[in-house]
Structures are given as structure tokens and as C-alpha cells.
């Protein structure tokens, strides 16, 4: 039993169950077969998934998906994949995809580590973005933070040369932790100089979470790194 516990895989999330609205439930049932990608199986052929060859952006932890859908709508020349474990958020994004008639956005309801290791080929992504992950602000919980050396190395492998990782947080101490991890990853270079935060990019739509934080006076720190 002890050995089994020791081999338990690290997860990129803590599952938060929530109540689905009737509309979200209908979206999952009706649209899921077309828009949801299976976390099991061989490496995805992204050209086959989207029916074309285009740069692909992967977002991990998209919340309710409004920001991701806004990006997909603004950039029809690019393809987007979102990963989220919060089922109501997945249902909400499927509703939004249908409402906006988006054909360049697909969704995983799964653990990001599982998806990256099994389904995303090395060197296949143009952008990976992680906006406002849980900061796990208590020191004893820091080991649960998503941005850790092994995970960032995995992300870097999935980027095409010149591909970017874009992170954002509204927690100052987590921002410094992110800087430490990213700066120590040899495959990545800071787009704005050593240990520099990025000006908030105009291409990143503000999330509902971010807007609430700004009303409360929270700062926001963006980090952008490129695959060397």
C-alpha cells in the first residue's frame, strides 16, 4: 500500500465540483461529442482536429472560458484548445462556442498533465497560456502550485521553436515564484529581459476573476517566455 501511494501521479488541479445549470448540461450533452477532446488515446493530429494547419494556442485552466472564446473570435486564423476540470466552466464555454459559432476552439475536461503527456506532441504548440492559477498562498501549500520546474519543462517541450508561454497572476509572491521557476528553465528565454515582468499585453482579454481583483485593488503581473 505504501508503494502504491508513493507512485500516485501529481495532478495539475484540485477538482472543484459545482452545480450545472440546465443550459450547461444541455451543452455538454449536445455539443460535447463534437467539441470535447478525449484525454485518452494517442497523440493528437492537430491538423485533423481542426481540419487545417494553423498556429495552436493551449490555455490551461480557462475558468468559465469567456476570455478564451474572446481570443478565438478575435483570431479566426489561429486555433485554440482549452483545458479545464471545473465541469460548469466547461459547459459554459461550450454554450459560448455555440453562441459565437466558433469553429477554431476545442476543449478538454481533464488534467493538464495527462493531456500534455498523452495527447499533445512535442513541438506542436505556438502558445501556452495560464492565467491566474490558484496561488496556494499558505507556505505549507506551495508544493501544490501549478508552476513548478518539472511542469514548466513539460510545457517547454510542447512548444515549437519560438513558441511562447504566457503566465499571469494577481498574487505578488506567486509572481516572484513564477519568475524563479521560469528563469531557471534553460529552454526558455524572457521576452522582456532577465527577471522582467511583461507589460499587460493588449491581446489578453481580462478575465472575470481579474476584473473582480482589479476592483479590489489587486495588481496583475504578466510573464512571457519564448522557447529558445
Write the topology of this structure.
Blueprint: H1 2-6, H2 22-35, E1 36-37, H3 46-50, E2 56-60, H4 66-74, E3 79-83, H5 87-100, E4 105-108, H6 112-118, E5 125-131, H7 149-158, E6 159-169, H8 172-183, E7 188-190, H9 208-215, E8 221-227
Parallel strand pairs: 1-4, 2-3, 2-5, 3-4, 5-6
Antiparallel strand pairs: 6-8, 7-8
Write up this protein.
The chain has 228 residues and is of the alpha/beta class. The chain has a single domain, classed as Vaccinia Virus protein VP39 (Rossmann fold), CATH 3.40.50. The chain has helices at residues 2-6, 22-35, 46-50, 66-74, 87-100, 112-118, 149-158, 172-183, 208-215; strands spanning 36-37, 56-60, 79-83, 105-108, 125-131, 159-169, 188-190, 221-227. Strands 1-4-3-2-5-6-8-7 form an eight-stranded mixed sheet, with helices on both faces.
Question: What is the gist of this entry?
Answer:
The chain has 228 residues and is α/β, with parallel strands linked by helices.
Shape, please? globular
What does the main sheet amount to?
A: 8 strands, mixed
Radius of gyration: 17 Å
Q: Averaged pLDDT, please? A: 91
Using brief descriptors, characterize the structure shown.
8-stranded mixed β-sheet, Rossmann fold, single chain, 228 residues, 9 helices, alpha/beta, disordered N terminus, globular
Amino acid at each position: 500500500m505504501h508503494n502504491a501511494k508513493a507512485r500516485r501521479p501529481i495532478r495539475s488541479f484540485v477538482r472543484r465540483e459545482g452545480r450545472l445549470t440546465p443550459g450547461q448540461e444541455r451543452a455538454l450533452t449536445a455539443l460535447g461529442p463534437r467539441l470535447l477532446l478525449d484525454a485518452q488515446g494517442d497523440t493528437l493530429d492537430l491538423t485533423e482536429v481542426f481540419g487545417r494547419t494553423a498556429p495552436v494556442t493551449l490555455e490551461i485552466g480557462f475558468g468559465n472560458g469567456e476570455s478564451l472564446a474572446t481570443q478565438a473570435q478575435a483570431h479566426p486564423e489561429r486555433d485554440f484548445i482549452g483545458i479545464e476540470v471545473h465541469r460548469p466552466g466547461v459547459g459554459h464555454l461550450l454554450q459560448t462556442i455555440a453562441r459565437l459559432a466558433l469553429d477554431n476552439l476545442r476543449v478538454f475536461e481533464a488534467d493538464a498533465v495527462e493531456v500534455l503527456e498523452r495527447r499533445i506532441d512535442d513541438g506542436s504548440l505556438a502558445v501556452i497560456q495560464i492565467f491566474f492559477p490558484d496561488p496556494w498562498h499558505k507556505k505549507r501549500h506551495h508544493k501544490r502550485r501549478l508552476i513548478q520546474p518539472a511542469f514548466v519543462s513539460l510545457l517547454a517541450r510542447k512548444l515549437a521553436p519560438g513558441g511562447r508561454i504566457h503566465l499571469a497572476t494577481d498574487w505578488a509572491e506567486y509572481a516572484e515564484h513564477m519568475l524563479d521557476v521560469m528563469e531557471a528553465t534553460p529552454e526558455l528565454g524572457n521576452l522582456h529581459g532577465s527577471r522582467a515582468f511583461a507589460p499587460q499585453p493588449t491581446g489578453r482579454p481580462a478575465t472575470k476573476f481579474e476584473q473582480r481583483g482589479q476592483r479590489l485593488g489587486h495588481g496583475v503581473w504578466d510573464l512571457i517566455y519564448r522557447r529558445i
